[in-house]
Design goal:
- One of its GO terms (cellular component) is nucleus.
- It comes from Triplophysa tibetana.
- InterPro entries: TLDc_dom (IPR006571).
- By secondary structure, this protein is an alpha+beta fold.
- It folds into two domains: about 80 residues, no CATH class; about 170 residues, no CATH class.
- The longest helix is centred in the first third of the chain and has 18 residues.
- About 10% of the residues have low confidence.
Length: about 260
C-alpha cells in the first residue's frame, strides 16, 4: 500500500473517531472550551491511543437513543457559550460571508480547523473569474479549504474540502468533505459512505460528489455557470433553488 493510500485510510478512520469520540477533542475546564487541534500527520497517534490503549477509553455498546441523548447534552453545553467567542477570525474581507453564515458554518467545521484564522486564498472579486487561477492560488496550500458560492439569486452554498483544489487524474479527498447550503435554510450534507467521489479537478471544471448520473456541485472553467444535483456521495438535495445556476461570487478560504 502506498503512503498516500495509507494516509487516506487513516483520514477516514480519524473522521470516524472524531464523530464518535468528541471528548478527545473537547475538554471542559473552568467552564471554558479547550480545543486540542490535530492535523493529518498526528491522526495515527490519536487512533493508536484509542485502539492500542483501551484503558484510555472504556468502550461500551449503547443504543441509538442513549447516543442521541448524549449528543444533545454536549450541544446544550456548547450552546451556553458566548456565540461571539465561537465565530472564526477572518484575516480578509469577504464579499459573501456574513455573521450568520460564519456562525452556522463554524459549528459544523472539523474540530482540527476551529482554532485557526480564515485566510482568503481566492476570490472572483479580487482575482477574476478563472478556475485556473483558483488552482494556481492553491499550489502552496496543504490544508483543508472552504468553498463559498453565491449565485445570481443571492443563494449562498458550497463545500468544505479536506484537500485543497487541484487538477487531478483521479478523485481525491476524505470523509471530512461535505456540502452545505443556506438555500433556503442552512443544511449540511456529509459523506454517505456510498462512494468516495469527493473531489475531481479538471482545467475545464471542478466537480464535488458524484453517482447517480449527477454531481453534487459542479463549476465551469470561467466560474460563470454551475450546477448542483443530488448525488450518491453526499445524498444531498440541490444546493441552489435552481439546479443549474449563474455564479455571482466564488471564494475559497483556508485555515492558518
Amino acid at each position: 500500500m502506498t503512503e498516500a493510500a495509507l494516509i487516506r485510510k487513516v483520514d477516514h478512520l480519524y473522521t470516524f473517531f472524531v464523530q464518535w469520540s468528541p471528548e478527545i477533542y473537547y475538554n471542559k475546564h473552568d467552564n471554558e472550551k479547550n480545543v486540542i487541534t490535530v492535523d493529518t500527520v498526528t491522526h495515527v497517534s490519536v487512533i493508536d491511543t484509542l485502539l492500542i490503549n483501551p484503558a484510555s477509553k472504556p468502550w461500551q455498546i449503547v443504543t441509538v437513543t442513549q447516543q442521541k441523548s448524549r449528543l444533545r447534552s454536549v450541544c446544550s453545553s456548547l450552546d451556553s457559550l458566548d456565540s461571539q467567542d465561537l465565530l472564526p477570525v477572518l484575516l480578509d474581507l469577504s464579499q459573501v460571508l456574513k455573521e450568520h453564515h460564519l456562525d452556522k458554518l463554524f459549528a459544523h467545521m472539523p474540530v482540527r480547523t476551529q482554532e485557526y484564522h480564515w485566510k482568503l486564498m481566492y476570490s472572483t472579486a479580487e482575482h477574476g473569474t478563472s478556475l485556473k487561477t483558483l488552482y494556481r492560488n492553491m499550489t502552496d496550500v496543504d490544508r483543508p479549504v472552504l468553498l463559498v458560492v453565491k449565485d445570481m439569486d443571492n443563494q449562498v452554498f458550497g463545500a468544505f474540502s479536506s484537500d485543497p483544489f487541484k487538477v487531478s487524474t483521479c478523485c481525491y479527498g476524505t470523509g471530512e468533505t461535505f456540502l452545505y447550503s443556506f438555500s433556503p435554510d442552512f443544511q449540511v450534507f456529509r459523506w454517505s459512505g456510498k462512494n468516495s467521489y469527493f473531489i475531481r479537478g479538471f482545467f475545464d471544471s471542478l466537480q464535488m460528489g458524484a453517482g447517480g448520473g449527477h454531481f453534487g456541485l459542479w463549476l465551469d472553467a470561467d466560474l460563470h455557470r454551475g450546477s448542483s444535483y443530488s448525488c450518491n456521495t453526499f445524498c444531498n438535495r440541490p444546493l441552489s433553488i435552481h439546479q443549474d445556476f449563474i455564479i455571482q461570487d466564488v471564494e475559497v478560504w483556508t485555515f492558518i
